[in-house]
Each structure stands twice: as C-alpha cells, then as structure tokens.
Amino acid sequence: MADLKLLDDPEFKDLARRKNSISVVLTIATLVVYYGFILLIAFNPEFLGRRFTENIPIGIPIGIGVIVFSWAFTGIYVRWANTHYDAMVENMKRKAGHGGT
C-alpha cells in the first residue's frame, strides 16, 4: 500500500517526469543524427563521396561523427543520472522507508 502512496507523491512524479524528459530529448537527438546520416546516404551519396582530404571521402568523418555523437549523448545521460537522478532516487527510497545505500 505504501508503494501506491509513492506513485501519487509529487516528488516521485517530478522524478519520473525529469527522467522521461531527458531520455526523450536524447533519444530524439540520437535518431535525428543517425537517420540524418542514413538519409544523406540515400539521397545525396555524391556529397559523401567528395574528398575531405586527398585519400578520405567526406562520408568517413561524418560517419565517425555519428558514432561520437552517440557516445556524447550517452555520456550526457550518464552524467545527469549520476549527479541528479541517483540522488533523487535515494531521497525517494528514504522517504518510502527503504533506507538507502
């Protein structure tokens, strides 16, 4: 029964809202970067074939950029979770009477 009270707690709702917000924003950003690259491959392969340097087409650094952006977005989420989310979860655990770590 205490768990049902927790679900109605405004602090818990705020915690869930914040987690969902950052998750959705970072997911959308990842999808835009990834599918933007895929659409570029599909509709403008000539651009990706242009030379960035003498031996490297521009598609290679763009593809590497997609991977780097994915890592960066993951890092952003991990940093947010470690600095904000974990503390809020611990506070909710104490509030619910489950102690904490």
* Shape label: elongated
Given the helix and strand composition, which structural class is it?
Answer: mainly alpha
Kindly, what is the distance between the CA atoms of the first and last residues, rounded to a whole number of angstroms?
Answer: 23 Å
Number of distinct helices: 4
Largest sheet: none
Strand content: under 5%
Low-confidence stretches: none
How much helix, percentage-wise, in residues?
Answer: over 70%
Write down the secondary-structure element order.
HHHH
**Total domain modules:** 1
Described by its quaternary structure, the protein is single chain
**How many DSSP-defined strands?**
0
Please tell me the overall pLDDT.
Answer: 89
Radius of gyration, in angstroms, nearest whole number: 21 Å
Task: Tell me briefly what this model is.
This protein is an all-alpha fold and 101 residues long. It is built from 4 helices and no strands.
